[in-house]
Amino acid sequence: MGLMYIFPVTDDSSEGDRVEIKNEELTLKTYGLPMIFWGYLAAAVSVVLIMWLAAHSVIAKLLTYTDDPSMLFLGNLVKWTLILAPFVMLAFFFYEKTLSKKDRTVTVAHKLFFIPFLIKKYQLMDKTSVVVEHFMDSPNMAKIRARQGLPSMEAMEMKGFENKGYFELNVVTADGKSVNIDRHSRKADLVKMKDLLLKY
Question: How far apart are CA 140 and CA 184, in angstroms?
Fold first, then answer.
């Protein structure tokens, strides 16, 4: 989710309610999705509504087959999928991740509709145990072939197709484990975020 929901990288007052400093504890809150995504949501919900209107009579018919469990299952599956889909899509707009740091304690909280549903606390090995690391699951063929020495013109054409991976912000806990707390496609932003966390 760190690639969709971005944290602020400065404690400047221009960040508004995205940054909070209280009792020497820094709390960062992710930005919401851009406004254009609300347009995407409206379009998607419109499609689901049209599907509901078109399929409503068929679903009602399927639910009358009380002696056939497969028809009942199919009717309920389609019905609840069409009912729950808009709420699931809306949940993406009301998801928020907060990251708090005070001395050697880092707290990561996930909220949905402003209600925390997952909170994790980590005790760091020391106050500076925050690192930025490059992550690449697997290189793609363009990168492998570039290593094998493609002719320069072909290598230039394939450059845009290389898997560059992304960067992770990890903390090292008191028991020596490395735990990922955020990720970003731009290393510079994670380095700024790391420096910000190290101030508190």
Answer: 20
- φ, ψ of residue 13 to 5 degrees: the values are -65, -20
Task: Determine phi and psi for 102, rounding to 5 degrees.
Answer: -145, 115
Select from 112, 117, 109, 118 the least CA-distant residue to 89: 112
Q: How far is CA 188 from CA 9, 101, 163, in A?
A: 10, 20, 19
Nearest-angstrom CA–CA distance, 141 and 145: 6
Rg (CA), the chain: 23
d(CA 20, CA 43): 35
Contact between residue 8 and residue 16 where contact means Cβ atoms under 8 Å apart: no
From residue 26, alpha-carbon distances to 102, 112, 123 in Å are 7, 21, 15
Residue type, 2: G
Terminus-to-terminus CA distance in the chain, angstroms? 24
Bridge partners (DSSP) of residue 135 are 166
Report DSSP state, residue 176.
S
- Span 42-97, pLDDT tens digits: 999 999 999 999 999 999 998 898 888 899 999 999 999 999 999 999 999 999 99
Label residue 184 by pLDDT band (50, 70, 90). confident
Determine contact, residues 106/100, Cβ cutoff 8 Å: yes
Name residue 58's amino acid: V
The neighbouring-strand residues paired with 112 are 95, 115
